Amino acid sequence: MWLLAGILAVCLGGLASAFVYLSVVASEPVLRVNRTIHRGEVIQPADLSVVALGAGIDVRAVPEERVSEVVGKAATTDIPAGGLLVEGVWGEPGVALGSARVGLRLAPGRFPDADLRPGTSVLVVALPDPSAVDQEVPGSVEASIVGTPAAQGDGATLFALNVPAGSAEQVARLAAADRVALVQTGSGR
Prior knowledge:
Elements: H1 2-25, E1 27-33, E2 48-54, H2 67-70, E3 74-75, E4 90-91, E5 99-106, E6 121-126, E7 141-151, E8 157-164, H3 168-176, E9 180-184
Antiparallel strand pairs: 1-2, 3-4, 5-8, 6-7, 6-9, 7-8
């Protein structure tokens, strides 16, 4: 009787050990973020890679098979490089109701030489027309940077800004006339 109980205990111990080992060793492929994706940027395939995550780890990472749901969506918050992609940090790209997206091409000296990342709050400042006399310069417009500013070969930088819809035409006209400067504000980021 004792011999049978000992054999049964050894068998159950072996099965329990095998279960624990397989739980620790078993893994599932999940999505990892390769570079910091800033709020508002569209997630590209190169921004993500696949890593194995132990099945016994309690992390709510996004499985590899959902990559098609994520690519092409906009980051709703900053997603740090090297971390696992988790639920709720992406959404539909677009412009919020009451806002408009405007593009600017600015020469050096027309924006702060700082890390102007997506989500940074700025003022779009109208500059006077050098050929006009006694002109009224429109007021500044609050905006936020969308996407990463792109440096051009001639030293200029391209910016995409979210501005209030009522000010979009004014900002676009001033940008086309090269009469705009950006000022970074302390609100937002």
